[in-house]
């Protein structure tokens, strides 16, 4: 199981393999923001167009069923996006001295805290507001907005945040040797 410990901008990310006790570096894939923006607009306008059909159906429990489907779909999307983020062929094993590992751990902890407190706070807020308003107002666009936050939450949870935090602390305290 690979646990992310440090990110260098959008260039590469360091992962720790617990079983092999090794660090690996994966390069980020070149992203096409046009593709993501296009998919977002299609989802947004598509859900707006489908909303008219949805409003006419008025089947009890449909909102809850759609939320459950969204939960599973967002998990699948998050796993796919996580897998597509890194260039798999760029995997290379690394060795660092303990002082360098400590520096990476300190910076990794700072990155983790920003990701947790800022990124997750916004994502959970977007998810909660989107899903809550969807259940109240019955508008599909709100479900899509909630899903945007949910995908980011799933992506964070896929990094094994508790184990990640523990590993970073162990690297910082020089308790793990490579």
Automatic annotation (TrEMBL):
Q: Does the keyword Transmembrane helix apply?
A: yes
- Supply the alphabetized keyword list: Membrane, Transmembrane, Transmembrane helix
Give me the segments passing through the membrane: 34-54, 60-81, 116-134, 140-158
According to UniProt, the name of this protein is: ABC transporter permease
Q: Which organism is it from?
A: Gracilibacillus salinarum
């Amino acid at each position: 199981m690979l646990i992310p410990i440090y990110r260098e901008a959008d260039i590469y990310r360091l992962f720790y393999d617990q079983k092999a006790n090794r660090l690996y570096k994966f390069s980020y894939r070149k992203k096409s923001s046009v593709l993501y923006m296009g998919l977002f607009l299609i989802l947004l306008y598509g859900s707006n167009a489908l909303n008219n059909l949805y409003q006419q159906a008025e089947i009890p429990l449909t909102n809850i069923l759609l939320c459950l489907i969204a939960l599973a779909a967002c998990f699948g999307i998050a796993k796919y996006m996580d897998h597509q983020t890194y260039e798999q062929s760029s995997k290379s094993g690394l060795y660092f001295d303990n002082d360098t590992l400590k520096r990476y751990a300190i910076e990794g902890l700072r990155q983790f805290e920003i990701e947790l407190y800022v990124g997750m706070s916004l994502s959970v807020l977007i998810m909660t507001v989107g899903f809550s308003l969807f259940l109240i107002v019955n508008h599909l666009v709100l479900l899509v907005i909630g899903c945007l936050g949910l995908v980011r939450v799933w992506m964070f949870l896929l990094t094994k945040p508790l184990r990640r935090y523990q590993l970073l602390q162990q690297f910082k305290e020089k308790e793990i040797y490579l």
